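Field reference: sequence -> structure
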Amino acid sequence: VQLQASGGGLVQAGGSLRLSCTASGSTYSAYTMGWFRQAPGKEREFVALISGSGGSTIHADSVKERFTISRDNAKNTLYLQMNSLKPEDTAVYYCAVRLGYSGPYNSPAQYAYWGQGTLVTVSS
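Structure field:
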C-alpha cells in the first residue's frame, strides 16, 4: 500500500481545510486508517481513525467536534475535514494504515505505510 496525502496549506484561525489521502492497492477497504500529526519538536500525535467500512470512527479529544474523518472506498481515499482551526493545530499531518492490534489504537507503532505528510499552518 502506498499513501499520498494532500490538501494542507496556510489558513487563518477559525478557518477550514480538508485533507485527502489517496491509497494504492485493491485491498484498501479492508484496512482501518488513521490520521496523525506532528508539530515541530513534538512527538507524533493521534488525530483520528476510521474502520475499513467507515462505520466506526474515533477522534482525539483535542479535535473532537472540530475534525471529522471519513473515507470513500470507491475512490481509495481517506479524508480529514478540519473546521475551527487553531494555531495549535499547526503540524505535518500523516495518514497511515493500522496493521497492529497488540497495542493502543492511538499509538503510531500500530500503524504502517505512512504517507509523506502534508503541512497545515494555522495563523493567529
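Note: The mean pLDDT is 95.
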